[in-house]
Amino acid sequence: MEGDFGGGGDIRFVRQGCAGVIVLDRPAALNSLTHSMVKAIGRALTAWQADDEVRVVLIKGEGRAFCAGGDILAIYEAGRAGRPPVGFFADEYRLNAAIARFSKPYVALIDGVVMGGGVGVSAHGSHRVMTEKTLFAMPEVGIGFFPDVGGSHLLSRLPGHYGMYLVLTGERIGQGEALGAGLATHAVDSTALAELADEIAETGDVDAALAARARDVPREKDGARLEAIARYFSPSTLEECVASLSQGAEEGDEFAAATLETIAKRSPTSLHVAFRQLRLGAALSMDECMRMEFRIVNRMLGNGDFYEGIRAAIVDKTKAPAWQPASLDAVDPAAIEAFFAPLPDGELEL
């Protein structure tokens, strides 16, 4: 049975057995989220929370991606036209918070690319099922943005400072690494997903259906590499973190050298914002993180690095953004402080 919660032809809602199923259906755009899709998912969750016949929610994507993020080109074009889409982010962040507090099982079937906004509609639910086709990343600092959609809450809580590593590098990881880090709750073969979804919809017993199909998948990074990540990304300031990597590189650590080279390509402003965001987020609730991120995004949409990053990555595809300021030490601490200041027109209402 189909449900009509809006979203146009970019998203489908299906009632199957005792499950409410959300299907992201923009395969040509890697299921990137539009404003109407975000609002439609929010309406569906509100309805299904109150519907006793819906015992579980499933979300999946059509094609080779789960969801590659928000529709970043539309955001860029709106901002360049003088209409920064603050409303999109307000509704997206409300949705992220609603998923985190949703009281029924919320099962994300992640079979392909999951980045940015795709993480926001999957990682805050009770079950994150990833297949061997999964490619996870939070690459925002590479486009002059910041790891939003609840990244402050999710990534700050990964053990071994692994979230800070992912945020500052934009590293892409697969199924085993995501499982080991705690980003995935279960690893399942891609070929078993349809059967898994059918059984969950029929029985409502998510854990039993997953127990029959989940696999142990080893991490790609060994213990020594994880220890290095924990060491290099544990300092309490970004400057100390970079200094630690620099020292490691000087001592011949190839991982430190390569990581330092990667970080050097990211927006210095975004790196400062992301570092502070994660340090603060570790002590905040999900709702508090979303309010903090809304403060940041209001300022980020007026920051030149965001538009320069999108221009270089997507519009002109030069892959060579000219960041302003161009170096970490040239960034004014007061400018970073301003990203986190209370909003004069009021905070995000959740």
Structure description:
By secondary structure, the protein is of the alpha/beta class. The protein is built from 16 helices and ten strands. A hairpin with a 2-residue loop joins strand 2 and strand 3 (19-24). The longest helix is centred in the N-terminal third of the chain and has 16 residues, at 35-50. The protein is globular, with a radius of gyration of 20 Å. The model has no long low-confidence stretch (mean pLDDT 96).
Which helices and strands occur, and which strands form pairs?
Blueprint lengths: L1 E2 L7 E6 L2 E6 L10 H16 L5 E6 L3 E3 L4 H9 L5 H16 L4 E5 L2 E3 L1 H4 L6 E4 L4 E3 L13 H4 L7 H8 L5 H7 L4 E2 L5 H11 L2 H6 L11 H10 L5 H13 L3 H10 L4 H14 L4 H15 L3 H12 L17 H7 L11
Parallel strand pairs: 3-4, 4-6, 5-7, 6-8, 7-9, 8-10
Antiparallel strand pairs: 1-2, 2-3
Helix pairs in contact: 1-3, 2-15, 3-14, 6-13, 11-12, 13-14
What structural category arises from helix and sheet content?
Answer: alpha/beta
Number of domains: 2
Strand order of the largest sheet: 1-2-3-4-6-8-10
Can you identify the CATH class of the largest domain? Alpha Beta
Helical residue percent?
A: 40-55%
What is the CATH T-level topology of the largest domain?
2-enoyl-CoA Hydratase, Chain A, domain 1
CATH homologous superfamily annotation of the largest domain:
2-enoyl-CoA Hydratase, Chain A, domain 1
Continuous helix count: 16
Record field, number of beta strands: 10
Please report the distance between the alpha carbons of the first and last residues: 30 Å
Please mark out the parts with pLDDT under 50 across 5 or more consecutive residues, or reply none.
none
Shape: globular
